[in-house]
Amino acid sequence: MSAGQTRFRKNRSGKLFRAVMIILNIIVAVGLLLAYLCSFVNPKVVWWIGFFGLAYMYLLVANLCFVLYWLISGKKKFALLSLIIILIGWNMIWKNIQPFAKKLPEARAGEGLKVLSFNVHMFSQRDSEQPDGTNLNIFDFFRKSGADIICMQEFMSTKWVDDLNEKVIRKQFAQAPYCYIEQTIGAVGIATFSKYPIIRKQLIYSDNSTNACIFCDLVIGSDTIRVYNMHLKSVGLNMEERALLDNVVKTEYNDSDVSTLKAIIRQMAASSVRRARQVKTVSEHIAESPYPVIICGDFNDPPASYSYRKIRGGRKDAFVESGCGRSTTYNIGRISSQRIDYIMYSPVFEAYDYASPRVQLSDHYPVVCRLIKKK
Question: Crossing angle of helices 56-72/3-37, nearest 10°?
Fold first, then answer.
């Protein structure tokens, strides 16, 4: 083979490889654009778009890799596609990643409200071994948190289990003696505990499952605030489906795996439509609140979602305002960890010391922050 033929083949293979990379770049760029759009598209209209919101972080990383690849390979003009798409969604980055925490100044220590939200998963891991080898009880965790307002999803109290009897549980929250417990299916439901008196409370919706939303009006000095505690529609994966998600990257799939994946997709589609209906009900109720609001809960949706945008509205996200890192709150498999638990609030407050402690007491991690009323 002559030198000319060798160069021709190399040039042809190089052009083919570049063409493949361009096509892949276009695919991930369009995917990232769809991830932005899913915040604005009601799942009732286009149910599948929510999958791109779930994949937002992976699509972002893929686009960043393409930007670097084209810059390193000297084809700078090809880097513009991903770079422009990333810049279009610049604000979305900070809903998922925060470089600096906002700490409470020592001079203001003890001021304001310490708020904690936690999907406790029916207290199924209420006394469990932690990564450092120590044992931790969930009620000890709540006591040590020093929280003034505690919102729990998948709360459980039953007379059939000694330490989950409602009377016993109330004693565990002596620092927050006022409470509203709504059992929406059997012994399971949603609960808000407060250090401050509750003057009004109401169930906003319940779908005959653990999913529900309640509010409590609290009197704090001369102020009244409304605290929403919500658990939006869950996907409801069984053990087999969770196991597949935990090992979704593998070389071979049998017929059972394919059937399970199809079932997961159907469930995710149906749950996203149900969530959209719940979001409409809740967002309209919040908009009519006569008081400043604090919103806590398990949304079962990431920041790149229709649920997040509608519920947040013009309010603040405690992680965005005072968090650091990525703060995933739920692990749904080795390839996907998401922030789906939130504390949001009216702009009359400022947030400090957002955290999501890595305690192994549920399939979720708690979220906590301190809110101080602006002067």
Answer: 150
Quote the strand ranges of the chain, DSSP E: 113-119, 127-129, 135-137, 149-156, 178-185, 188-194, 198-206, 212-220, 223-231, 293-298, 316-317, 330-331, 337-338, 341-345, 349-355, 367-373
**CA quadruple 156, 158, 160, 161: dihedral sign:** positive
Smallest CA-to-CA distance from 57 within 356, 325, 351 is with 325
Does the pTM surpass 0.85? The reply is yes
Residues sharing a CB contact under 8 Å with residue 273, sequence separation 6 or more, in sequence order: 43, 44, 47
Name the amino acid, one letter, at 245: L
Neighbours of 97 (CB within 10 A): 16
Angle of CA points 355, 129, 297, to nearest 5°: 35
* Phi, psi (rounded to 5 degrees) for 251: -80, -30
How far is the C-alpha of 231 from the C-alpha of 269, rounded, in Å? Answer: 18
**Vertex 167: Cα angle to 163 and 173 (nearest 5):** 80
Q: Which residue has the tokens 């810059």?
A: 71
The residue with tokens 């929250």 is 173
- Whole-angstrom distance, CA of residue 340 vs CA of residue 335: 16
Q: Digits of tens for pLDDT over the chain (375 positions)?
A: 555 555 656 566 768 888 999 999 999 999 999 999 999 999 999 989 999 999 999 999 999 999 999 999 999 999 999 999 999 999 999 999 999 999 988 888 888 999 999 999 999 999 999 988 899 999 999 999 999 999 999 999 998 888 899 899 999 999 999 999 999 998 999 999 999 999 999 999 998 888 999 999 999 999 999 999 999 998 765 555 455 555 554 445 555 657 767 777 788 888 899 999 999 999 999 999 999 999 999 999 999 999 999 999 999 999 999 999 988 998 665 555 789 999 999 999 999 999 999 999 999 999 999 999 988
